[in-house]
Structures are given as structure tokens and as C-alpha cells.
Amino acid sequence: MTAELVRGQNHPLSHVRLTIRVSAGAPVLAGAMLGDENGTVHGTQWVAHPGAPALPGIEVSRQCATEHRLAVDLDALPEAVHRVDVFLALPTGAGVPPRFGAVAAPHTVVEGLDGTELACYTLTGLDSETAVLALELYRRQGAWKVRAVGQGYAAGLTALLADQGLREAADLAAAVHESAAHGPSRALPTPSTAPAPQDTSARETAARAPQDTSATVPHDASAAARDTSASAPYDTRAPELPHAPAPGTAEPRPSYPARNPYDAQASGTGPRDTGARVDYTHPGRRPHATPPPAAADTDGRPAPPVAGDAVGWSMEERLYNQVWGMFEDLARTIAAYRSAVEFADSRLEKELDQALTDPRGRLGTAGETAREAAHTRRTQLVAQARAVLDRDLAQLTAESEVVEPALPPAYAGWDNPVWHGYRMPTEPPMALRLGDLHLPESVPLRIPMLVRLPLERGLWLDSGSAAASDGFPDSAQLRHLAMEAAVALAARLLAVHPAGDFAVQVIDPAGAGAAAFAPLARTGVLAAPPATGAAGVRQVLEKLTRRVDLVQMAVRGGAPESLPADVDTARQLLIVNDFPHGFDDRAVTRLRYLADEGPDVGVHLLLVADREDAAAYGPLLDPLWRSLMRLTPVPDDHLADPWVGHAWTYEPSLVPAGSQIVHQVLAEVARNLTKHR
After folding, report:
1. Percent helix, strand and coil across the chain, each rounded to 5?
2. How far, in Å, CA of 441 to CA of 49, rounded?
3. List of residues 6+ apart from 60 with CB closer than 8 A
4. What pLDDT was estimated at residue 179?
5. Residue 642: is the preceding peptide bond cis (ω within 30°)?
6. Residues of the chain with pLDDT under 70
7. Nearest 5°: phi and psi at 614?
8. Residues whose CB is less than 8 angstroms from the CB of residue 115 and which lie 6 or more positions away in sequence, other chains included
9. Of the candidates 153, 161, 60, 149, which has an alpha carbon nearest to the alpha carbon of residue 100?
10. Alpha helix stretches (DSSP H) within 280-410
């Protein structure tokens, strides 16, 4: 039975040698991109298109047509390829439809070589788009699946390719259109195994973040005519894909990402940056062998989840990538469920309207029978979608139960046993856990919210009414919880860095956070006692501003050894409580300067504040708030994922009530700091 997919839904593939049939209402060009586990396309040689139709494991057509057959052999793909993205684009030139919305919706079918239809997907809801990412074949825990994507791009093929991180997007798009316009008619092959190139694992990967989205409303897929074209073997002269350096080979330190991929603000308090590239490579690490992906059981069921089964050069990196994969999988499966429910509702509404427009259905039992049948069909559709969702949630829950206990301290919750055996590390981590994320349909399942280090943006713990919920109406209680979250975060940052590599300073003008800061102050892990009063605020800001200026000049001049002896080169976290209390105009200007310039030279802000308290400054401070990542001391759905745009509920990583684990960890940090000094 063919699985009719809706946008975001996935389906397991029982064949490895496949044909992907495409039928469209107008001539289109078809292509495919190969990506690693994180979806990164590492260059134009990873793209099969009319000008270069054959890559190991895949071949596409050389020309525009209303019918296409793409040949795929999953076993012949390079080992490092984990994704195959199929895209469609309208050609350029006179007489071409201006957009997909002006023609019948494209229809795709994935089938085995024996003609068995495995899945189909109709790309509904397209309007102004001229290019679309139609399907994605991806490998998860050793098994291949197909996902209906339907991501449209009004800016055309250039925007689609650029969204995959291809710097040559414009040139490649022009070449693709030129090749398709002059390409000869060619019969597409059935797959045959071709020699795989060298392992294409790469040190630099990226998380894809769609930028040009279009909502879709699925409907029943119509059948497409079969194309029984003759077959030809793969072109084994296809260009080789780039390969990774040999194990043990030193590499230059990579640049850090410009943005954190989780940080797509749904609340409007900050700008959404969904096109951020993410570098998963830990600086200074040497590559290690990556374990082979887990295989599926012989009965077709997914293999039991294994902690660290993602790609990476160390267990830490593999766990980071695995958590990212869980985050993406949950986003996609919830999107598929919501689309299915939306489809069921729209179908019910349509059938009820049809029943009402028929005069014969308004009287007697015929109309009531039609309405009951429509409601029954809606219930069945929703039940089927829920069954698929429950299956996917069960798999992700099982994976979470395996992954969570295996996380290192930087990624682990405060209730994780790993903290009880804590020892100060000898090198900094690649990422940090800020809290947990979940969606309404998956409340029991929490996905760790990991951000790359060093931080590229400051943090803002919102202690105001915007963060309040029904359970926390008291503003004083919210401020207290925000301070607890700030202390827990500062303790984690200190604990996961080597002794002397990270320092924490506190500005508390009125001393309102003295009780909350007590664990930091008592253990002696603060670089200095909390600064109070206007004089204390001015002194700390002057010192940090001077540090930023001197380090910037030293870095630009290529002479870091010229820094004065009194400049602390350790990374700094400045916690500011009750901003803007105690800040005059000069202090506010310096704080904004630290927020803008500090992260590049290791100075990071953590504001614990209510934005309404700064209302007297008017729009002057709006750039400051937008430059910070907003967190909340209580659950709040203000973060959006970069794929579908779900509003995710964020929960801070707090210490369990009555636990002394933070005190124990800080005591160990203090002992190591004493030795270091």
C-alpha cells in the first residue's frame, strides 16, 4: 500500500534501489543534492543536475520535462552521505509559467525497481515559488526514510541552493538552467552499483535553516502516469566528492558560527536568523574514527538506539549531533501530524459544505448520514496520523532514555549522575546546555537545548511579567527564580571550563540578589565580590571595556603577547542584576558596547532584568534586547525551530529542590582555582 505523505511526514523505505517519478503541470528541471548527516552540501560536485546528471548512487535527467525519473541506489552512495534532497525548478525563458502556483501541483512517487510504490507526495500550497525542495531521503540509525519537504523558494533556484550553504549558488543555478535549456533528450537508468568515492566525512558541517517558506494544505494525491523509458548505466566518470584528512592530521582552527541555530525568536523580542551556518567542529581537536552507523534488525524494525551513533570526531561531538538530530526529527514529525490534522479538518469542512449545497441532503436521513460519514472519515484520518506520531515519539523517547545518561557535564541536566563524579576538565566543551525544549504534543519528551561555545550572543533571563504564567503571578517569585537560573548557568560555565579559563563577575547595584549569589560568593569562585552601587557598576564596566579594547587591538595587530600583565585573558561572564537600576547614561552606553563587541573577544553578558523597567529609555535600548538571547525562569513558548517554525516551550535547567550538587561542584571548582592561582 502506498503511503500518501503530507508535508513534514516521513516513511521508512524497504528498498535501497529506487526510482523517484516526478510529474508536473509544466516542464520543470529536476536535480538532487547529496548531504552529510547534518544536511550540508559540501560543494557543487555534490549536486546532480542536467549539466552533471550522474553522481555515485544517483542520476537525474538532462533536460526539462513534465515527467522525470530519478534513479537512486542507496547502497552505492558514499558512506558519508546521509541525505539526498530532490529539488524541482521552473526553467527560465519566454513562455515559462511565472510560478508553481500557476500550474497543477507537482506529484512525486518513490518506488522500488519492481514497480512497488512505497510513498507519494503532492506538493500542494505552492504559490509564488519557482523552485521547491520536494523530497528528502535520509539515513537515521542505519535505516533509510523518505520525508515530504515541500519547501518553496520564491527567489528561485539560486535561493534554494544558497539555503544549502553553497557559495556558488548563483553560478550553479545559471549553469543548471543553461544545461537544461540545451540538454538532449535522454532515457534515465535504473540504478546499478558504481564504485563509491573516498569517505566524504567533513570537518565542517552546517544545520539547514529554511528561509523562504510557504504553507501547504495537503489533499488526496492523484495518480501519475508511469514512464517506462529505457535504462542506461551510471556514468562512472562522475566527479569525486571531497574527502576528509587522514586521522591524526592537524587542521587549522575553524571559525565559530555567527548564530546559534536554536535562536529563532517566536515572540518577536529578537530577530529570527534561520539561515545560520553551524560549525560542528571542536577547535583544536584531532579527528577520530567515526563508528559505523547502527544497522536495522532483520525483521525490519529499527535497531535499538545507541548513544553517540551520529557522526563526529569524538563522543562529545557525536552526542551533540545526535541531540540535534532528535530535535529536528521531533520538529518534522510534529509538523507532519499537524498537517494531517489540518488536512482532515479541511476535508471535513469541504464534505460538509458539499452536503449542504445539495438540496437532497438537507432533508431526511441522507444529509445526516453524509455528515456522520464525513465526521467518521475525519476521525479515521486523525487517528492514523496520531498512530504515526505515537510511533515516532516512542522511538525518540527510547533514544532520549539512552542518550540522556550518556551526556557529559556540559550537556547534562543537574539531576544527571555524571555530576556526582565531577572532576574539572582539561579543555573547554564544544557546547552548553541552556535548558530543555518540548512541544504540546510531546510534553513528556524533552530535548536538551544545546548552544555552541564560545557564546556568540549574550543572554537575557526575563524576570518580568512577559515571562509569567498562571502558576507564577508573583513578580518577586519570578525575579528569585530568574536569579536561581542565572546562578545555575554561571556554575555550569565555570564547571565545564578548565581552571582559570573562565571567570564570572557580578553587578548587583542594590544588593537585591545577595541571597541568590551566595553559592558563588561563599565558595570563592567569583573573580571579585558582587559590585554594588553606582561606583561599583562604573568600576566593573570600565575594567571590562578596557579589556575589550586592548584585546581587540592586540588581535588586530597580531601581537597578543603585548597585552598588559593586568589584563585577564580568561573568558568573562558578566551577570547584571536588576538592569537598569544603578546605571546612568554612560554606564548604559558601556553595557551596550560590551554586548556588541564583547563576544568576539571573550566577554559575555547575562542580564537578569524586566524589560519594562527600562521603558523610560524608550527605543534607545531596543538594539540591546534584540542582541541578547531571551530565556525565561519558567516554561515559555518563545523559541522557534529553524525548519518548520514551531513555537517550542523552553524550560530552564534548574537545580532540583534540596539538592546540594551545585555547592559540591563549585567547591571542586574553587579547589582547582586555588591551585591554578
Report:
1. 35, 20, 45
2. 39
3. 30, 31, 32, 48, 49, 50, 53, 68, 70, 188
4. 84
5. no
6. 1, 94-95, 183-303, 358-364, 465-473
7. -100, 15
8. 226
9. 153
10. 315-357, 364-406
Q: Are 516 and 483 in contact (CB under 8 A)?
A: yes
In the numeric block, the cell 558504481 is attached to: 194
Q: Which residues contact 572 (CB under 8 A, 6 or more apart)?
A: 502, 503, 504, 505, 527, 544, 547, 598, 602, 603, 604
Return the C-alpha cell found at 546: 578596557
Tell me how far apart the alpha carbons of residues 194 and 235 are, in angstroms, rounded to a whole number: 8
CB-CB contact of 195 with 75 (8 Å): no
pTM of the model: 0.61
Domain 3-192+201-220 listed as CATH 1.20.140.10: no
CB atoms within 10 A of CB 552: 14
Please name the residues in contact with 156: beta carbons below 8 A apart, sequence gap of 6 or more. 89, 90, 130, 131, 173
Axis-axis angle for helices 475-495, 661-676 (nearest 10)? 40
CB atoms within 10 A of CB 545: 18
Give the pLDDT confidence score for residue 665 in this predicted structure. 94
How far apart, in whole angstroms, are the C-alpha atoms of residue 231 and residue 324? 39
In angstroms, the CA 502 to CA 490 distance is 10
Q: How many residues does this entry show for the chain?
A: 677
> CA–CA separation, 32 vs 56, rounded Å?
12
Q: Are strands 117-122 and 3-5 parallel, antiparallel or unpaired?
A: parallel
Residues 349-360 as b/e (b if ≥16 CB within 10 A, e otherwise) read eebbeebeeeee
Residue type, 577: N
The position carrying cell 582559570 is 500
Grid cell digits, residue 296: 536495522
Helices (H), 499-600: 514-523, 533-556, 585-597
Question: Do 510 and 613 form a contact (C-beta atoms < 8 A)?
Answer: no
Separation in Å, CA 595 to CA 121, 549, 629 = 46, 13, 11
CATH class of 420-676: alpha beta
CA atoms within 13 A on the CB side of 532: 8
Tally of CA atoms within 13 A in the half-sphere of 259 that contains its CB: 20
Distance between CA atoms of residues 36 and 242, nearest Å? 12
First to last CA, the chain: 69
Note the pLDDT tens digit of each residue in 601-637. Answer: 999 999 999 998 888 888 889 889 999 999 999 999 9
Residue pair 449/412 in contact by the 8 Å Cβ criterion: no
Which cell numbers in the block locate residue 148? Answer: 515530504
| Joined grid coordinates for residue 341 | 490534522
Q: Are 431 and 409 in contact (CB under 8 A)?
A: no
- Where does residue 221 rank: exposed (0-12), middle (13-18), buried (19+ CB within 10 A)? buried
Give 84's strand partners.
34, 137
Could you tell me which of 435, 437, 433 has the C-alpha nearest to residue 407? 433
pLDDT digits (tens, 9 = 90+) for 26-36: 899 999 999 98
Contact between residue 326 and residue 403 where contact means Cβ atoms under 8 Å apart: yes
User: Measured between alpha carbons, how far is 523 from 504 in angstroms, rounded to an integer?
Assistant: 13
| pLDDT given for residue 353 in this prediction | 82
Q: How many helices (H) and strands (E) does the chain have?
A: 10, 22
Which of 445, 448, 424, 447 minimizes the C-alpha distance to 434? Answer: 448
- Separation CA 297–CA 69 (nearest Å): 31
CA dist 1 and 18 (Å) reads 16
Q: Give CA–CA dist 420/416, Å, rounded.
A: 8
